Automatic annotation (TrEMBL):
Pfam families: Tll0287-like. Keywords: Signal. InterPro entries: Tll0287-like_dom. Residues 1-21 form the signal peptide. The keyword Signal applies. This is DUF3365 domain-containing protein. It comes from Hymenobacter lucidus. The lineage of its organism: Bacteria, Pseudomonadati, Bacteroidota, Cytophagia, Cytophagales. Residues 109-204 form the Tll0287-like domain. The keyword 4Fe-4S does not apply.
Length: 228
């Protein structure tokens, strides 16, 4: 009984103190929202199985998308500088330094596979059954610590036809001679815009996906606009 009375008395005293405070007497914590966001970001997040799968897609799209953009940029530069002869050696985006840097961060191993590889040493041949439409992503988790991302490689850039298009139409006879000299077993010609040429297949370690998901879902404070 006594403890209940003490509790009520303490509550009444607290309410009295709060009622006596005016808004201009309350001292606000500087950068309070930023501090709260930082503390929330530092909290350990529970990542569910579905979250891992979503993060694998995000990470796969980011890695292969960057590699494809770098490929288009390099090919444009080399084709302009020295034509097909200069560009032939640059059609391996999985081996670029920028791709390798991002792969190390994500604990990933990116590879490309083709139905008709240019160089079998670099690309393993796969069957056409393994290629899906461009809108499809395949996400798998073969083991508890490994995730697999796969998406098609589609010929979507007209400049690629200079090395992979129809011989005599898109590829000149001289350029085709260069291609066969460098890659005697080449099969990577005869494509048209929109054709699926192969697939990107990337394996991710669980820790890399977990870190990527944490960074992807971390809140970012918007910069404050100056008052004056």
């Amino acid at each position: 009984m006594r403890s209940a009375f003490q509790f009520l008395a303490a509550g009444f005293l607290l309410l009295s103190l709060l009622a006596g405070c005016r808004p201009d007497q309350i001292e606000h914590i500087e950068n309070g929202k930023q501090i709260a966001t930082t503390l929330e970001n530092m909290a350990v997040k529970r990542i569910l199985p579905a979250d891992f799968l979503h993060a694998t897609r995000w990470a796969g799209d980011s890695l292969t998308g960057q590699a494809d953009r770098e490929l288009r940029r390099r090919l444009a530069e080399q084709l302009q500088a020295g034509g097909v002869a200069a560009a032939l050696s640059y059609c391996r985006p999985e081996s670029y330094a920028s791709t390798d840097t991002l792969a190390r961060i994500l604990l990933a191993a990116p590879r490309r596979f083709s139905t008709r590889p240019r160089n079998p040493r670099n690309q393993r041949a796969i069957s056409t059954d393994e290629i899906r439409p461009d809108t499809v992503r395949r996400i798998e988790r073969p083991t508890a610590d490994v995730f697999i991302y796969q998406r098609p490689i589609v010929l979507a850039d007209a400049q690629c036809l200079r090395c992979h298009g129809a011989v005599g139409k898109d590829i000149t006879a001289a350029d085709y001679t260069l291609i066969k000299q460098k890659y005697p077993t080449d099969m990577a010609t005869g494509y048209r815009l929109g054709d699926a040429m192969g697939v990107w297949r990337v394996s991710f370690a669980r820790n890399g996906i977990a870190e990527f998901y944490t960074m992807k879902t971390r809140k970012v404070m918007k910069p404050r606009k100056p008052l004056f």
